[in-house]
Structures are given as C-alpha cells and as structure tokens.
Amino acid sequence: MKFPSRKRDKRYHSNYIFRCGCVIIRRSRTAISVEILRAALEGAKKTHIVYSANLNFEVVNKYLALLKEKGLIEQNDNIYITTEKGKEFQEIARELGL
Length: 98
Known about the structure:
Blueprint: H1 12-15, E1 16-19, E2 22-25, H2 29-39, E3 44-45, H3 46-53, H4 57-69, E4 73-76, E5 79-82, H5 84-96
C-alpha cells in the first residue's frame, strides 16, 4: 500500500501520521464512539473501556460525557452500559461502514 507524499498532498496530514517509520491511521469520532459502546455492551468499568478502545483516560472521559449527554450510554455506580439508543447507533454505524 503506497501512501501519498507529505509535500504533495495536503490531505495527508488529516488521515495519516508517520512515527518511527510506521503509518498510524487516525480513527473518526464515530469509530471511537462505536468502540466505546461495543466495550460497554454488557457493562464495563472505565479501565476496561480504556483498554478495549485503545484510548487514554482523558479522551475516554470526554467521549463518555458526550455519549451520556446523547443518551447512548448510562452509568450505574462505576459501570458503564450501552443503552438501547446506543445499540441502534452502533447498528446504523455498522450498516454505513463507519
């Protein structure tokens, strides 16, 4: 797979990052949200979500606040559970290939 040159393609910076000779592809907000919702399907602590979604605590906290605000996830004590609305969101995202 050949990736565009940094100098020739301005779009390069928004999709790919080079570190140590490796290409890192950034995930969309939707993809990250779906990963968090998937981790919390059966109920999960924040630590499990962090490891499952491969994110740090700061980023997970922001996404959990957003998902709770939208009614896609709920918190019972220290356990996060994907709501029915969250499951529907996941299904739509999967159908659209997001």
